[in-house]
């Protein structure tokens, strides 16, 4: 009973203290609430930033891995293409060499036989030499015949000219009579005629009778 009486006497102080504690608790609650909000905001920000950083790092790793894989695939494709191109080029070159050797062998064996060609060329050379000899002989014969005929014709013409000009053969012949070609019928034959007249032996000249010309 004494305790209850003591509480009853101090009821106002208890009530005031209660409300005071309530006010303090209210103030602390607001501070704790704001502190909790700040902590939650900071924690969420930290988590978001960490998650974003992790995602960025993961994305960078994924992109790096993918680009590495893609570049590796591209490199392997280019390498395979280059090897295929080099192999085809090598095969084509070897095939051309084989074809060249085979065509050369075939041409020498079936088309351009060296032994037959050499024999043919020797035969042609012999034929050409024989033909050249025949042509030389023919040319010599025809040239001699033509020269002989020309000399005979010239001799006959000289004799005719001498017979037609026998009256000029005299001790009283004037030398200037041989000079003007205008008085001769054949001016081109005058030098030969003059030489013939000068060298002829006058004692052996038989003057023929002059008939119709």
TrEMBL record:
CC annotations in GO: cytoplasm
Lineage top rank: taxon: Eukaryota
Single annotated GO MF: calmodulin binding
PROSITE patterns: IQ
Keyword Cytoplasm among UniProt keywords: yes
Keywords: Calmodulin-binding, Cytoplasm, Repeat
Location(s), subcellular: Cytoplasm
InterPro entries linked to this entry: ASPM, IQ_motif_EF-hand-BS, P-loop_NTPase
Major subcellular location class: cytoplasm
Protein name per its UniProtKB record: IQ calmodulin-binding motif family protein
Organism: Trichomonas vaginalis (strain ATCC PRA-98 / G3)
């Amino acid at each position: 009973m004494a305790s209850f009486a003591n509480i009853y006497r101090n009821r106002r102080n208890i009530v005031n203290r209660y409300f005071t504690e309530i006010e303090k608790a209210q103030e602390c609650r607001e501070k704790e609430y704001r502190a909790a909000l700040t902590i939650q905001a900071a924690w969420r920000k930290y988590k978001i930033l960490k998650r974003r950083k992790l995602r960025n790092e993961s994305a960078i790793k994924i992109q790096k891995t993918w680009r590495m894989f893609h570049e590796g695939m591209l490199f392997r494709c280019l390498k395979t293409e280059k090897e295929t191109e080099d192999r085809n080029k090598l095969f084509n070159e070897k095939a051309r060499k084989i074809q060249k050797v085979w065509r050369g062998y075939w041409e020498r064996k079936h088309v351009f036989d060296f032994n037959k060609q050499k024999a043919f060329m020797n035969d042609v050379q012999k034929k050409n030499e024989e033909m050249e000899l025949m042509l030389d002989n023919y040319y010599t014969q025809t040239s001699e015949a033509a020269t002989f005929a020309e000399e005979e014709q010239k001799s006959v013409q000289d004799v005719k000219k001498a017979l037609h000009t026998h009256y000029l053969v005299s001790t009283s012949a004037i030398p200037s009579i041989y000079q003007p070609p205008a008085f001769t019928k054949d001016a081109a034959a005058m030098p030969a005629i003059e030489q013939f007249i000068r060298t002829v032996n006058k004692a052996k000249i038989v003057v023929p009778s002059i008939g119709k010309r």
